[in-house]
Amino acid sequence: MKTSTRIACLSLLVLGVACKNGEQKKEASTISTDVINVPSTASGKVAAVGSAPVMLFNEEKHNFGKITQGEKVSFSFIFKNTGGSDLVISSAQGSCGCTVPTYPKEPVKPGEESKIDVVFNSEGKSGVVEKTVTLVTNCNPSTKILTIASTISVPETE
Questions:
Q1: DSSP alpha helices (H): ranges in 40-88?
Q2: Half-sphere exposure at residue 18, Cβ-oriented, CA atoms within 13 angstroms
Q3: For a Cys staple, 77 with which of 42, 46, 102, 116, CB 3.0–4.6 Å?
Q4: DSSP single-letter state for residue 30
Q5: Are 140 and 120 a contacting pair, CB within 8 Å?
Q6: The dihedral of CA 28, 34, 41, 107: what is its sign?
Q7: Which tens digits make up the pLDDT trace of 105-155?
Q8: 85 closest CA partner among 51, 49, 136, 37
């Protein structure tokens, strides 16, 4: 066999193996939705269809309107568990240190209401400001984002 023919055959062989390996890697990186879509009860057991907790808010966005820089304002986001099992909030995180949420640490039973209290400190802020609170729960989807907004005016100095 000529050298050029050998090189051509070897190139095709290498290309074929590389393509096959690429397909295997693509398949391996695919995650089954069974792994990430598992609503569960507070006990950690998989919830029966229709029995998973459901977090239903009266409102998910609150605007404080016009406030003065340095003012601390608060709001309570009221929610109800309209699902069929206990609702558990594992964390609530503000988008910055100026936004501090407080949430129930005990499971919220089906049919019960509870609240997420959010305190916003406008110190050092000005203009139109929007901040978020991200909740992680055992609902599906597992995250819920609440939003607060305000227009902050800077007091005039003498």
A1: none
A2: 6
A3: 116
A4: P
A5: no
A6: positive
A7: 999 999 999 999 999 999 999 999 999 999 999 999 999 999 999 999 998
A8: 51
Q: Is the dihedral of CA 90, 94, 96, 100 positive or negative?
A: negative
Nearest to 55 by CA among 112, 96, 3: 112
Give the type of residue at 121.
N
Superfamily classification of domain 55-153: Immunoglobulins (2.60.40.10)
3-state secondary structure (DSSP) of residue 154? coil
CA–CA distance, 66 with 149 (Å, rounded to integer): 10
Among 43, 83, 66, 69, which residue's Cα sits nearest to residue 126?
A: 69
Q: Which residues are within 8 A (CB) of 61 and not within 5 positions of it... i.e. 6 or more apart?
A: 146, 147, 148, 149
Position 149, amino acid: A
Query: Where would I find the beta strands (DSSP E) of 7-112?
Result: 55-57, 61-68, 72-81, 89-94, 99-102
pLDDT number for residue 155: 87
Amino acid letter for position 30: T
Amino acid at 3: T
The average confidence (pLDDT) of the chain is 82
